[in-house]
């Protein structure tokens, strides 16, 4: 099997190899830090009940397993590293902590889970762990699973709080928190084609040193998928830090499917982008608000940006709410970008659009969509930032062939008005056009409507209706309770 590492991982592995002082027996042992503290040469010192200091780097052999006990605290001394060539089973029932022992410039190298020369033996699973100051570097053919973990102040020399260094694995990171890390939350090298499902996570102020890297910095995954779903990403208004970026800088072949769905991204340099050739991207039902903190509008500031000078990237963009960006959607090159194609509901490329634009622009000009390509782009069924959805008024917020004859045309009529909803599986709510209300079916007990920033704006019991006529324009989330079951839907008021 082909081994594919970044230059950084090679340098880091060499540094770790020179620092290792203890290697586990390699006899299918299952080791804890409590057990290691009884081995003098391990470098593990037990300071108190469930409190351990690691003074020297250790390596876990390919056939061994390392576990972190429930309620344990592991403190890493300067320049030490835990290299796991076997199994990292860090899943305490309640909680555990991994942290730096000292606040010095000589940081721990952290936790590395890497296959050794025995292919495919190593893997890691982490649950209920708080990482403070150190993160995970991962280079295995088997996938990493991270669930309900917290990463804060991770600043060892790595690409991210979680960094990938090996092509091929399918990884899951879910229900976790990434707060105030000087590095990105999650990252992979340009030559590491890693499948990742990154879902239901909360991120605040990552890449806090403000260099040119986003919160999420991934590469396409070939025949695997990159799925970024249901995350909340809150920036600190830094001018170099974007929200979501997935790239194919080396032109890797394959399906390269990228799904960016149901995320809430705010206060970043830009919202989300896909860069490079041979990408099949889907941007669905995201909320992008005030992603405008690029100091030069010519260098970024889009809610959504799709970029491919080779004209091979494809993108479907639907159901997104984009507000307060320097540019709403920018298309640079690419092949087929479908922002709404409503002519034939039975067509394979049918797209209802349902994107909503509000207050996107720079230099005193509104830019909902900028077609900086020679392609014909369909963008029907959307609600544009004009008071009337007429051809003449929509034309003022779209830049395309009508503004520069070298560019492709945008087909944007018809636009959309009224309310659009995403149907729930149990059909517990519908929109009534006559009363401009959300109507609950008898099977639903209660509905609560939240604004995009989480405030409650309306609620009703099963015997009442929720009028949306008085709601201001924007995206809303309806939470529908039926006994012990809860469903949600997103709708937009135009």
Q: Would you count the extended β strands for me?
A: 51
Helix and strand composition category: mainly beta
Oligomer: single chain
Strand arrangement in the largest pleated sheet: 1-5-8-11-14-17-20-23-26-29-32-35-40-42
Rg of Cα set: 25 Å
Instruction: Calculate the mean pLDDT score and round it.
Output: 87
Distance from N terminus to C terminus (CA atoms, Å) equals 53 Å
Percent helix among the residues? under 10%
Percent strand? 35-45%
The main sheet comes to: 14 strands, parallel
Identify low-pLDDT runs: 1-19, 418-427
Number of separate helices: 3
- The general outline is elongated
Provide a descriptive summary of the structure in words.
This protein is mostly beta strands. 4% of the residues lie in helices and 42% in strands. The chain starts with 6 loop residues before the first helix and ends with a strand.
Write the layout of secondary structure elements.
Elements: H1 7-19, E1 20-23, E2 30-32, H2 33-36, E3 44-48, E4 51-54, E5 57-60, E6 65-67, E7 73-76, E8 81-84, E9 87-90, E10 96-100, E11 110-114, E12 123-127, E13 129-132, E14 136-139, E15 145-147, E16 150-152, E17 162-164, E18 170-174, E19 177-179, E20 186-188, E21 195-199, E22 202-204, E23 216-219, E24 225-229, E25 232-234, E26 244-247, E27 257-261, E28 264-266, E29 272-275, E30 280-284, E31 287-289, E32 302-308, E33 314-318, E34 321-323, E35 327-333, E36 336-338, E37 356-358, E38 361-362, E39 365-366, E40 369-372, E41 377-378, H3 391-395, E42 398-399, E43 410-411, E44 419-421, E45 429-432, E46 437-440, E47 446-451, E48 456-461, E49 465-467, E50 474-482, E51 485-493
């Amino acid at each position: 099997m082909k081994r594919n590492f970044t230059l950084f991982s090679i340098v880091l592995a060499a540094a770790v190899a020179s620092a290792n002082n203890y290697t586990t027996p390699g006899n299918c042992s299952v080791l804890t830090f409590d057990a290691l503290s009884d081995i003098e040469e391990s470098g593990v010192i037990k300071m108190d009940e469930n409190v351990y200091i690691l003074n020297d780097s250790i390596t876990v052999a390919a056939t061994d397993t390392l576990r972190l006990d429930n309620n344990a605290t592991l403190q890493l001394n300067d320049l030490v590293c835990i290299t796991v060539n076997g199994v990292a089973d860090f899943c305490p029932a309640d909680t555990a902590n991994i942290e730096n022992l000292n606040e010095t410039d000589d940081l721990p190298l952290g936790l590395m889970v890497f296959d050794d020369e025995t292919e495919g033996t190593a893997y890691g699973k982490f649950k209920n762990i708080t990482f403070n100051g150190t993160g995970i570097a991962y280079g295995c053919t088997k996938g990493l699973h991270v669930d309900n973990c917290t990463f804060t102040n991770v600043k060892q020399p790595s690409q991210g709080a979680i960094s990938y260094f090996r092509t091929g694995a399918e990884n899951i990171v879910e229900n976790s928190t990434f707060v105030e890390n000087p590095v990105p939350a999650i990252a992979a090298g340009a030559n590491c084609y890693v499948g990742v499902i990154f879902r239901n996570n909360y991120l605040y102020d990552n890449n806090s040193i403000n260099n040119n890297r986003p919160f999420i910095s991934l590469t396409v995954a070939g025949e695997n998928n990159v799925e970024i779903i249901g995350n909340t990403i809150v920036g600190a208004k830094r001018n170099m830090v974007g929200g979501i970026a997935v790239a194919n800088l080396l032109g890797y072949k394959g399906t390269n499917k990228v799904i960016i769905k149901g995320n809430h991204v705010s206060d970043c340099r830009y919202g989300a982008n896909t860069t490079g050739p041979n990408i099949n991207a889907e941007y669905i039902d995201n909320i992008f608000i005030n992603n405008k903190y690029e100091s030069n509008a010519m260098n970024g500031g889009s809610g959504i940006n799709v970029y491919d000078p080779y004209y091979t990237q494809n993108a479907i963009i639907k159901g997104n709410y984009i507000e307060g960006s320097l540019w709403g959607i920018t298309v640079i090159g690419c092949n087929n970008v479908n922002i709404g194609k409503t002519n034939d509901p039975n067509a394979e490329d049918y797209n209802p659009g349902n994107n909503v634009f509000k207050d996107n622009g720079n230099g005193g000009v509104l830019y909902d969509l900028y077609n900086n390509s020679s392609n014909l782009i369909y963008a029907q069924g959307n609600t544009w930032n004009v008071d009337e959805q007429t051809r003449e008024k929509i034309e003022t917020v779209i830049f395309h062939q009508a503004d520069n004859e070298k560019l492709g045309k945008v087909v944007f009529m018809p636009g959309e008005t009224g309310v659009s909803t995403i149907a729930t599986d149990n059909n517990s709510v519908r929109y009534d056009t006559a009363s401009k209300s959300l109507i609950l079916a008898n099977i639903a007990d209660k509905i609560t409507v939240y604004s995009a920033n989480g405030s409650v704006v309306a609620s009703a019991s099963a015997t009442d209706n929720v009028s949306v006529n008085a709601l201001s324009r924007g995206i809303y989330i309806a939470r529908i309770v039926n006994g012990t079951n809860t469903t949600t839907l997103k709708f937009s008021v135009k």
